[in-house]
Fold this protein.
Amino acid sequence: MWGIIRQKVAAGGGSPVARIRPVVSNLRNYSSAVKQMMVREALNSALDEEMSADPKVFLMGEEVGEYQGAYKISKGLLEKYGPERVLDTPITEAGFTGIGVGAAYYGLKPVVEFMTFNFSMQAIDHIINSAAKSNYMSSGQISVPIVFRGPNGAAAGVGAQHSHCYAAWYASVPGLKVLSPYSSEDARGLLKAAIRDPDPVVFLENELLYGESFPVSAEVLDSSFCLPIGKAKIEREGKDVTITAFSKIVGLSLKAAEILAKEGISAEVINLRSIRPLDRSTINASVRKTNRLVTVEEGFPQHGVGAEICASVIEESFGYLDAPVERIAGADVPMPYAANLERMAVPQVEDIVRAAKRACYRSVPMAAAA
Amino acid sequence: MRFIPESSEKRVPCFRVLDDNGELIKGSDFQQVSKEVAVKMYSHMVTLQVMDSVLYEAQRQGRFSFYLTTIGEEAINIGSAAALSADDFILPQYREPGVLLWRGYTLQQFANQVFANKADDGKGRQMPIHYGSKKLNYITISSPIATQLPQAVGVAYSLKMEKKDACAVAYTGDGGTSEGDFHAALNFAAVMEAPVVFICRNNGWAISTNISEQFRSDGIVVKGRAYGIRSIRVDGNDALAVYTAVQAAREMAISEKRPVLVEALTYRVGHHSTSDDSTKYRTLDEIEYWKTERSPINRFRNWVERQGWWSEQEETELRSSIKKQLLQAIQVAEKTEKPAITELFSDVYDVPPSNLAEQEKQLKEIIQTYPQDYPTDVPV
């Protein structure tokens, strides 16, 4: 079991909310040659490099300029690129999203930041009806090279209207691409790919990951680094059960895999990276190897990402399944605030371990998580 | 302690150049137009009117599914279009095909779009009257109301950054000003100092909602000040007044890098669309009055004829020629093949995704295997 520390956030996050952080981080003993990079820094450097390389790229959102970004992702960018390329906007998601879409119609490459994707609801018409559908409706005359980014899903102690995961919402729409990074390598490579892509991209970050550090190689640090959209990454190879996850849940899945390994279950953890297009071939190839599948996500269960993965596997690899698909999702309730209730509403490592064991037909105690 | 009253004693006055009979009002700020421009404006207004009546009738005959007319608003359409340059980027609502017509979109292209055939620039993707042309700087019409307003601010911002001698021009109706996007757009345009001209066609009706039920302010013009935007109210049925005001607005927007709001008062003579019967919520007398006595076309015609630049004969010739061209265009459009099945799958993304490529391949294989089950008039 890992201990939990409550920390008051200093200048980093901008809101005096108590944050729950795991004590055990991903730091391992590396030689000094491999650099550690926080996800926040990864996103910042990706934005910086893309803005430097292409004068059409500009950033827009609430608090992105003077305040250095609500979560400091755009730190230093206003100073470097000036107010014409880093725009602080009035409080109107509908307004600045519409403006971003219009600028993209005309040929600029906006990066629109939502303080949280929960607030993107106030602009969702522009994302769906304008950005996503325009290329098709205009028969290719209007392309929309825009990126919508910001924190998505649950944070800690922020309640129902700040904890919703929108992956399934946006990933259901043809015309959009939807990405969700986990590590710093993901953050850099996928954000660069998103900015360079001529299609509209929804980029779902995670607030709790911003402060986490990951090792990054020299290749990742190079300004030309880019990850392909639509390819998942096998974070950990295994042969007994496939676990699919994205964003923060990848971290929990890796921890679950460690625990399962001690009990003789070798779990293969897939970091989806791309929700739309979904890397069905990697997922199916993995399930054909392991014959068992556990999908994990933070969002609500009905019509979620796991539902789509499950359907895809049943359509393409039914004969390979040795057990019913296990689907883990957030509880089917608006996120409660009280810490104990919140903990019960979001998937925990133990939930993933139990589901994997069920898929492997191992007996599992009925006791709820500690 | 004094509260600012909810309305002024007097309504904001309306800028006019011609009186109801088409006579020049003495002392009005009038931008003299050449015979060439005046005749071009007038004939485009007539063309728009004839196009609307012919295509409306064709829809009523069941030849295509949907249409909406611009009857009564020809002066706003053509007057504003004539005042702009070809580089000015247009973001319409949907009752502004006249701007596209002015810029050179042909009657055949309009017909192709409503019939959604394979010659349609839009590849039959959109419902009728949702025209667009990248070449003519006129964005494809989008149905949700007022979404084009903040988008116009984005376009204007791009133009400003490129230092182009051009502005964005966004049109909306009176109903559209109730949308959140209207307020976000105006506020933002002022803050960003964007060169955008907002033209509001206040035609009195939003389907069956009269303006008295749409807002309680003195029309739209007064809303400009609330956002720090210069605004003007103009007689939308006076082609010369619209021309003069829009030209001035454009100049201000570009040289001073500011948004400008133009409220053009007019009347929606036609029904909202072919899905509407407006006699259900307004009187025939009212419609008839605006159709005949307040017709923007007759009013401008009087002025053009008085200049000696137009005649009854030219009128008859023009109308019959346009009608003939339209009937021909409709025939051609109706006979033209529908878009190929390939167009179902393209343009979703810049590069076709693997799942759609696969599905298209499978569909083509099935069609080849069972040709008798596939309609002969739909190209593959």
